[in-house]
């Protein structure tokens, strides 16, 4: 029997597969106690829990959760999306920890525990929103990018970029201002040219 790729059952299988591709998170440990301790302090297991939980929650509760981040109208009937099934050409260019879509919005959520947010990753999500629009021909959905971490965003940002981004204030507004004041990268990750995405990326950034 085939299994829906967006189901919570399939999500569990995918996160078990994760440890095949990233064995260092298990194989370098000397005891099950260390494995258990490490799994509770890394992002992949947390993302698995979040993805499964969000698939089981009613849209009403999910809307209430997102309202903690923003007062925006996210729409109704949330669906968790496998972005690679929509844009397989992206390969491993970018994939958010959580991808949501409603009738009026598209949402990326990036979670961090110990690692830091970066400009490179932020640009990737802006370009991924633009790519998603181009691929589907749907441009009227409000794009969102949420950063979820245990610390204030400026403290969870990589140190070498922190001062130039948060020179005025320690808020998300500073990130948006910085992105608006500086040109998009032409090459990013395994994408050798991002220029075809720039026009739509500007609209994403200012929407």
CA-based gyration radius = 18 Å
Number of domains: 2
Q: How many strand segments?
A: 4
Strand content: 5-15%
User: SSE order, as H and E?
Assistant: HHHHHEHEEHEHHH
How many angstroms does the end-to-end distance come to? 42 Å
Strand order in the largest sheet: 1-2-3-4
Tell me, briefly, the overall form.
Answer: globular
Uncertain segments are none
Structural class from helices and strands? alpha+beta
Count the helices. How many?
10
Mean pLDDT: 84
The biggest sheet, with number of strands, parallel, antiparallel or mixed sense and barrel status, is: 4 strands, mixed
Q: What do you see in this structure?
A:
- It is a single chain.
- With 207 residues, the chain is α+β, with helices and mostly antiparallel strands.
- It has 2 domains: 1-56, no CATH class; 57-205, no CATH class.
- The protein has 10 helices and 4 strands, in the order H-H-H-H-H-E-H-E-E-H-E-H-H-H.
- The protein has a 4-stranded mixed beta sheet.
- Helix 7 (119-136) packs across helix 10 (195-205).
- The longest helix is centred in the middle third of the chain and has 18 residues, at 119-136.
- The chain is globular and about 50 Å long.
């Amino acid at each position: 029997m085939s299994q829906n790729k967006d189901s919570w059952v399939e999500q569990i299988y995918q996160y078990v597969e994760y440890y095949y591709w990233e064995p260092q998170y298990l194989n370098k440990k000397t005891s099950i106690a260390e494995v258990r301790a490490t799994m509770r302090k890394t992002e992949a297991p947390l993302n698995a829990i979040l993805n499964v939980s969000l698939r089981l929650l009613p849209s009403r509760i999910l809307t209430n959760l997102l309202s903690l981040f923003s007062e925006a109208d996210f729409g109704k009937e949330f669906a968790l999306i496998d972005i690679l099934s929509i844009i397989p050409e992206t390969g491993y260019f970018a994939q958010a920890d959580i991808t949501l879509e409603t009738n009026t919005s598209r949402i990326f959520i990036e979670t961090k525990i110990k690692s830091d947010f970066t400009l490179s990753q932020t640009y990737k999500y802006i370009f991924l929103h633009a790519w998603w629009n181009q691929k589907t021909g749907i441009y009227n959905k409000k794009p969102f990018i949420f950063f979820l971490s245990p610390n204030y965003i400026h403290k969870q940002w990589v140190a070498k970029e922190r001062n130039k981004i948060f020179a005025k204030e320690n808020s998300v507004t500073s990130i948006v201002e910085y992105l608006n004041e500086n040109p998009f990268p032409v090459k990013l990750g395994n994408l050798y040219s991002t220029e075809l995405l720039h026009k739509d990326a500007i609209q994403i950034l200012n929407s």
